[in-house]
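hey so i finaly got around to running the thing on 3-oxoacyl-[acyl-carrier-protein] synthase 2 from Rubidibacter lacunae KORDI 51-2. pasting the sequence first so u can double check i didnt mess up the copy paste, my clipboard has been acting weird all day
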Amino acid sequence: MAHWQRKRVVVTGMGAIAAVGNTLTEFWEGLLSGRSGIDTIASFDPSRHASRIAGEVKGFEPHDYLDRKDAKRMARFSQFAIAASKQALADAQLEICDLNAEQIGVIIGTGVGGIRVLEDQQEVYLTRGPSRCSPFMVPMMIANMAAGLTAIHTGARGPNTCPVTACAAGSNAVGDAFRLIQRGEIQAAICGGTEAAITPLTLAGFASMKALSTRNDEPQRASRPFDRDRDGFVIGEGSGILILEELEHARSRGARIYAEIVGYSMTCDAYHMTAPVPEGGGAARAMMLALKDAELQPEAIGYINAHGTSTPANDSTETKAIKTALGAAAYRVPISSTKSMTGHLLGGSGGIEAVATVMAIHTNRVPPTINLDCPEDECDLDYIPHHSRESVVDAALSNSFGFGGHNVTLAFRRYRPTAS
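ok and heres what it spat out for the 3d tokens, dont ask me to read them lol
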């Protein structure tokens, strides 16, 4: 038992930048319409690569959020994080000032940080010599800089950190922020994930692992979670940010409440560098512990945003894990993988998918898994194929699993003025 009184924590604002839209409204409408944001890579020439497709963010203008000098001195993943954070603060109508700055934290996860900066500067080093490398290379590249720069540009002076747990990083960030507020250490947090890893070297590395889809002639049909013809994930980019607040703090300022975050758990497979435990034991434990933390029964779950990467190993294993965690209720719960539309944002995925999960509760609409034409035999749950669905969602889970065996589950529920 905890020796501290648990505070209730609610979601009061969100920001989203992804291949299907650069605002919360665009993002959610894009998901509900079943629109794929995946296309042939335009940011560099991918012709030498086995996989030449990605979920690139389109039309993003950093100068809408940053002056040109600041934007030039930061990597794209940090630009995304600041932009989505400013969107979320505006959505929450939360102003940061000297009176509350120390009570507002920033926790933003990422997988690989400013890898494009590193690639570009390595080229400078090789062709022009060490003296020509940028003095901004290191602060642009390091993974924690999205969180640090977001604090600088918003004024938040509370706890500031950056989980780097591969594809679980964004969910860890939301969960860690939840715990800080729940324990009464801060009143609010800017939290989520960000990634901008669509680069030549990243693509080459994942392709060498045979992890990426090579359905290059049909980009929008390439990400197909739970489908028997899936052949790997499609890399995406962007950022999803949530404003979490202690309930009484939110109430005192009349904030709109999207949902309440009620559970968080993390486990480890301790099994393999990249592959999940075959029966999904670690992922199942994460879901069961999140349900326990949230004091929710499996029957209460009205939606699961699956990790659903469209890789042969993940999708069948996650299906087994859901069955283990939810029992008979697994066959009744709507499940979808929004990666079918956004691509896989790596360390940013948990943030953008938490946004989608909260919006499902807020709107009673669940986004689809597109391209699910022929479900694999082992993938026999309700994956909401092709089209979004109206469905009452009183509670929901969001799963994120990362290389190294990291498993994270977040639990959200509809906000009720009383805890019962």
